[in-house]
Amino acid sequence: MEFEQLKAYLLAKPETTLGYPFGEDTHVFKVNNKMFALFGRHNDLPMLNLKCDPLEAAALCDVHKSVTPGYHMDKRHWISVYFDGSVPQSEVERLIDNSFSLVVAKMPKRDQARLLAD
């Protein structure tokens, strides 16, 4: 998945913003001022950090060698997906959707209704 394609997919989520609080090489995607994705590089590979259910995160790490506990994140609730070509685009998109939904689920009900209605 090319970065511009990934960026467009992330920014298509309702009320998503892009910022650079950690420097211009680290792209932080937020919904309602809450981070749900972070794109950067680690070990010379493009990497995407996403929020993830702990049980699913453990299973993903077992299935995909390029999915690890979140780099510089809470390793129980975040994963890092390294773009080495081994994780299909459809799976990356599913994980993005899931991360967005997990973050929105922690917001007040009025915000959830607005963000998930789109």
Characterize the structure shown.
The chain is an alpha+beta fold and 118 residues long. The chain has a single domain, classed as Aspartate Aminotransferase, domain 1, CATH 3.90.1150. It contains 4 helices and 6 strands. The protein has helices at 3-11, 54-63, 89-105, 109-117, and strands at residues 16-19, 27-31, 34-42, 45-51, 67-69, 78-82. It has a 6-stranded antiparallel sheet with strand order 1-2-3-4-6-5, with helices on one face. Strand 1 (16-19) and strand 2 form a beta hairpin. The chain is globular, with a radius of gyration of 14 Å. The two termini are 24 Å apart.
Structural class: alpha+beta
- Write down the overall mean pLDDT: 92
Major sheet summary line: 6 strands, antiparallel
Number of strands: 6
Count the domains.
1
InterPro entries: YjbR, YjbR-like_sf, YjbR/MT2646/Rv2570-like
Pfam family, one: YjbR
Keywords: DNA-binding
GO molecular function: DNA binding
Keywords:
118 residues; Aspartate Aminotransferase, domain 1; single chain; six-stranded antiparallel sheet
Could you outline the blueprint of secondary structure elements for this entry?
Blueprint: H1 3-11, E1 16-19, E2 27-31, E3 34-42, E4 45-51, H2 54-63, E5 67-69, E6 78-82, H3 89-105, H4 109-117
Antiparallel strand pairs: 1-2, 2-3, 3-4, 4-6, 5-6
Summarize the structure.
By secondary structure, the protein is α+β, with helices and mostly antiparallel strands.
